[in-house]
Write a structure and sequence with these properties.
GO terms for molecular function: desacetoxyvindoline 4-hydroxylase activity; metal ion binding. It comes from Medicago truncatula (Barrel medic). There is one protein chain. The chain has 9 helices and 14 strands. It is of the alpha+beta class. It has a single domain, classed as Jelly Rolls (Sandwich), CATH 2.60.120. Strands 1-2-10-7-12-5-4-3 form an 8-stranded mixed β-sheet. The longest helix is centred in the middle third of the chain and has 25 residues.
Length: 356
């Protein structure tokens, strides 16, 4: 009976097409039960008196100075093996473009509700707006609204995108695609491989982005902005605003990733951990709900979502040896994603289902 009531509440919320922002605009002071998240006993590093620095890697001059490139490759290797998270500066995207993109995300969610509703859907489209991608399957809803823009392998037509953020979305994501391609070169070199290795095997073929809007929450202790999860892709590049809030798990502590206006946050995806045979680490991360807001971010993912490929991936053979045998079976993106959707609704890693 309780389950039926919950489904009814979820459906009623979804059918408003107004998302979490609609609840806040209506002036609620108590959050609906569908948003109640299970308690997490893991402490923040700051609460335990630990100061863990999130590595910041400067990409300046790496195309011209071989010593600078060598230093950056070593830093990326260390960060990818130890933390799974790092920030990059001097990546080539102007701060003005980053600021415009954050404003574009905010403008989309704060435009007239009737215009925004036209994009609200759960059908696969080049651009989709909704609240909670896994609304009907996750144990609890999260306190955010999102849009999804599929960029590659099939780019959207400009008319598929909302006018309010169309130009900056196309401009920003085309620049992020270039930065991602550069990062795959550096990651290839960090693995001791030819610089084009990861792009040659298809790591940069699929590309999509989520714009997230986290309204202020009247009871932030009861819910989360984004629940604990791993990214089911090769690589993620995230732009977060001045509010911050992103945390990743390191040595059983939540580490805050401080906002830097000129930086992009990079994190290793679960599929990259699989093909590097656990050399690079994909780690859990989350975003708590917050009394202040709104918070906006845009996460760009290298992987495929609605354009499945039959290409299979397994641990890179050049990294294997008698002492380092393959820890995972070969699999495809659709199978990996399916495992995540059907077996990992509490945020666990789908990699565990492909262990040898």
């Amino acid at each position: 009976m309780e389950d039926l009531e919950r489904v009814k509440e979820l459906k009623a919320f979804d059918e408003t097409k107004l998302g979490v922002k609609g609840l806040v605009d209506a002036g609620i002071t108590k959050i609906p039960r569908i948003f109640y998240q299970p308690r997490d006993s893991t402490k923040k590093a700051s609460e335990l008196g630990h100061t863990t620095i999130v590595p910041v890697i400067d990409l300046a001059n790496i195309e011209k100075d071989p010593f600078a490139r060598k230093r950056v490759v070593e830093s990326i290797r260390d960060a990818s093996e130890t933390f799974g998270f790092f920030q990059i500066v001097n990546h080539g995207i102007p701060v003005s473009t980053l600021e415009e993109m954050k404003d574009g995300v905010k403008s989309f969610f704060e435009q007239d509700s009737e215009v925004k509703k036209e994009f609200y859907t759960r059908e696969h489209k080049p651009f989709m707006h909704y609240s909670n991608i896994a609304l009907y399957t996750a144990p609890a809803a999260t306190w955010k609204d999102s849009f999804l823009c599929n960029m590659a392998p099939i780019p959207p037509k400009p008319e598929d995108l909302p006018v309010v953020c169309r130009d900056i979305l196309l401009e920003y994501l085309s620049q992020v695609k270039k930065v991602g391609t550069l990062l795959f070169e550096l990651l290839s070199e960090a693995l001791g491989l030819n610089s084009t290795y990861l792009t040659d095997i298809g790591c940069a073929e699929g590309f999509y982005a989520f714009g997230h809007y986290y309204p202020p929450c009247p009871e932030p202790e009861l819910t989360l902005g984004t629940s604990k999860h791993v990214d089911v892709v090769f690589l993620t590049l995230l732009l977060q605003d001045h509010v911050g809030g992103l945390q990743y798990l390191h040595r059983d502590m939540w580490i805050d990733v401080p906002p830097m206006p000129e930086a992009l946050i990079v994190n290793i995806g679960d599929f990259l951990q699989l093909i590097t045979n656990d050399k690079f680490k994909s780690v859990h991360h989350r975003v708590p709900a917050n009394l202040v807001g709104p918070r906006v971010s845009i996460a760009s993912f290298f992987g495929t979502l609605h354009h499945p490929t039959t290409r299979t991936f397994g641990p890179i053979k050049e990294l294997l040896s008698d002492e380092n045998s393959a820890k995972y079976k070969e699999t495809s993106f659709p199978k990996f994603m399916d495992s995540y959707i059907t077996k990992c609704n509490k945020g666990t890693s789908p990699r565990l289902h492909f262990k040898n």
